[in-house]
Amino acid sequence: MKKNITVIEGDGIGPEVTAQSIKVLEAIAKRYGHEFVYDHQLMGAIAIDKTGNPLPDETIESCLNSDAVLFGAIGHPKYDNDPTAKVRPEQGLLKLRKSLQLFANIRPVTTYASLHHLSPLKSKLLEDIDFIIFRELTGGIYFGKKELNAEGTIASDECIYSVEEIERVAHLAFHFAQKPGRRKKLTLVDKANVLETSRLWRKVVQQVASQYPDVEVNYMFVDNAAMQIILYPKQFDVILTENMFGDIISDEASVLAGSLGLLPSASVGKGTVLFEPIHGSYPQAAGKDIANPIGSILSTAMLLEYLGMADEALLVREAVTWTLEHKFVSKDIDPINFYFTSTIGDLIADFVSNNIPGVVHAQNIELRKSTII
Ligand code: IPM
Ligand code: MN
Fold it and tell me: What is the pLDDT of residues 215-260, one digit of tens each?
């Protein structure tokens, strides 16, 4: 197959983690006889520096014309520490989500036995965790009217949802809950005891639920959900929630996996689909070759699956599990005995290319000769 992929490396560690994903894609292309054509485009702080615009039209154009988008990370401290900045990198990502109508962000949460010790939670709580968060992505408080009075003393952000916006993401989540291998359980996370928008979510989800009688639905207030994710994570199968709550609880859920650097995501909607790790731009690590590339590489596995390459996706996931089990992990996971971002990328690409011998010589890997281990 030949596929066009728009690559948006973005800011901070974005370029280095995305480079590992491309290595892996190239290994897949070679092994399975595919061709991936990459179109590199700008977004975020780097786009502001180069063009003055966090999302140039050319980037949108490229995404609209491609089969999938692979995105790295966004954000720069010079904007985070300046609340008065008129143009911000994140505006680029929000505008892209809106332009591509990516109304659902899908974040699977899985844990690896080899990393249980990294979580602040007891290992016993981490067994059998397999849930997925469906976060609404183009509505709510993120996109409502934002106001600041003339004196700069009162600010407001409107949270607004329509029935249609809730329905479309709810259908995706219910469909997913019905898939083979799922436990057919959907939890709507909201704040219906306080917010009108949450009451609308409950009403619409109750209606949608009647079309999926085999899916068990329950409702949970977000404050309780934040607690339950840590106390008893096994109870969740599919979580459906609005934009802001989804943003917050998905970062929280990453603690279960052991590091924010491990979690992938897919943003889907009406047009081209976008894949990105859930972590941010981690500017302190930029350029040091110490970032965790797994979130990006697992996002690439989701991309392959979406392109109809299920075996290829499975192989990438197997390769990731293999590196974790052999402790070929980045600095966020093991601050003492860690491997470089690029070495982990090489190892995963080698595994995909079937270049890994039965016995691995860690010494050679440390010398960064992964292709001849
Ligand atoms: C995410 C990020 C973004 C969000 C930021 C960078 C705008 O935190 O994708 O979770 O809040 O949606
Ligand atoms: Mn976030």
Answer: 999 999 999 999 999 999 999 999 999 999 999 999 999 889 989 9
> Would 353 be classed as within a structural domain?
yes
Q: Which residue has the tokens 């459906």?
A: 240
Protein residues whose CB sits closer than 6 Å to any atom of ligand 1: 74-75, 90, 93, 247, 278
Q: Are residues 126 and 5 in the same domain?
A: no
Distance 94 CA to ligand 1 centre (A): 8
Note whether 212 and 228 are same-domain residues: yes
Token digits of residue 268: 């889907």
Residue 253: domain span: 120-257
What is the rounded distance in angstroms from the CA atom of residue 319 to the CA atom of residue 86?
A: 43
Which residues are within 5 Å of ligand 2 (an ion), measured at CB? Answer: 247
Ligand 2 mean position to 153 CA, how many Å?
A: 27
Number of structural domains the chain divides into: 2
Which of 231, 257, 283 is where one domain is finished? Answer: 257
pTM score, whole prediction: 0.93
Burial readout 143-173 (b: 16 or more C-beta within 10 A, e: otherwise)? bbeeeeeeeeeeeeeebebeeebbebbbebb
Question: Is position 113 within any domain?
Answer: no
Ligand 1 atom closest to residue 276's alpha carbon, by position in its atom list: 9
Q: Report which ligand 1 atom has the smallest distance to the Cα of 74.
A: 6
